[in-house]
Amino acid sequence: MLDKETEKKYINIVKQDMTLSKGGLKMTNYAKLKGLMVERGLEVNKLAVELGISRQATSDKINGKSKISLTDAQVISKALKMTSEERDAIFFAECVQ
């Protein structure tokens, strides 16, 4: 579970992402997310079970084709046993092209 300050930060970034993504910018660092999944041995199928969604829907999320919600970010962070630094670098990235 994210603390209130981090949750507020995430919500603000998601709002910014909605605006910035129109110009091709993303706030989530999908490359780092996928790299950490490989490093930690977490397969898409297993993450899908954790998220409670289909494999395809999970793939869409980790490839930037659909949004990662705050709840998704929490589940992914827990599943990957992310440190707060890893979580921030992935979900609170500045503008990633």
Give me some keywords for this one:
97 residues; mainly alpha; 434 Repressor (Amino-terminal Domain); 6 helices; 0% strand
Task: Report what the structure shows.
By secondary structure, the chain is mainly alpha-helical. The chain has a domain at about 30-90: lambda repressor-like DNA-binding domains (434 Repressor (Amino-terminal Domain)), CATH 1.10.260. It is built from six helices and no strands. It has helices at about 5-20, 30-40, 45-50, 55-60, 70-80, 85-90. Helix 3 (about 45-50) crosses helix 4. The radius of gyration is 13 Å and the shape is globular. About 15% of the residues are buried. Mean pLDDT is about 80; it is low at about 20-25.
pLDDT averaged residue by residue: 82
How many strand elements? 0
> What's the story with the biggest beta sheet?
none
Based on CA atoms alone, the radius of gyration comes out at: 13 Å
CATH homolog superfamily of the domain at 28-91: lambda repressor-like DNA-binding domains
Runs in which pLDDT lies below 50 for 5 or more consecutive residues are 18-25
Termini separation: 28 Å
> What is the structural class?
mainly alpha
**Which fold does the CATH topology of the domain at 28-91 refer to?**
434 Repressor (Amino-terminal Domain)
Q: Name the shape in a single word.
A: globular
**SSE succession:** HHHHHH
CATH class of the domain at 28-91: Mainly Alpha
Please give the count of helices.
6
